[in-house]
Amino acid sequence: MEEAVQRTDATPGSGGRVRTVVLWIVAATLMLGAAAFQRLTGPTVALRGTFEVSRTAYRYKLPRAGWSYEDRRVSIPSPGPHAAGTLYYKRYRTDDPLTAVPLEVDDETLTGLLPRQPAAGKLEYTVVVDGPDGQIGIPDRDATVVIRFKDAVPIFVLLPHVVFMFFAVLYGLRAGFSALLQPSSMPRHAWLALALMTVGGMILGPVVQKLAFGDFWTGIPFGYDLTDNKTLLMWVVWVITCGLLLAGRVPDRLRRGAVLVATVVMMVVYLIPHSLRGSELDYTQLDRAADSGESAPPP
Fold it and tell me: For position 14, what pLDDT does the model report?
């Protein structure tokens, strides 16, 4: 019966072609949705909100990512010609005292600079505006924003990494749909998903990590970087799945079920925002190296 289903599925016809086109469109749409979600979420995406002065709302956007080779500009709308404010910051997860930087008026904005940090270094900061009704904390009176700095990654490394990873999602989704509706094409799509994931996630991914933050791998067993760990989990599941596709005497139902599970795991992984629990510089070690006279990146 299963062989008959596969022969029917492989038989060309207008109905089969339409189904194939529809499945590719659905897979591409979901892949683009995953790409948009990854682009718009996560701890390095700028924090947006509003603050109110004299019953007038002002929109702000506070950066949560910066380059290690330049200071990071922080700007908010100026609520009036005589408005003033202060930028407070310190190194993240340290007992450093807060540094206060008076904001300067710049083309109807209040602007301050956060000092650049070594790759994976983080600062936490807040902005306080002096309004006619008193001081206003941005984003909130007792809240801070965390910003992470990174080195630049050449586009010829970063772009293939991104392209390979999202095409892995495309073929992974297509493999899952094939497991449900077109089993004859399932192995081909599953192997392509694994190949793209291997190159994009397990080869280019560590290269990007090294160039941006100084380490090839900060996931298990060396750390708890969630981006590395979720990529590893997804890859291992697809390796096991493709192993079942190669193994003899494995029921077709089990193979199709394994591909469906791998597809679900992949989509769960892509619903986790990028850079959560990402690489983080240990300032304690940095200070210890500086005190002992060892070479250390500039603060």
Answer: 65
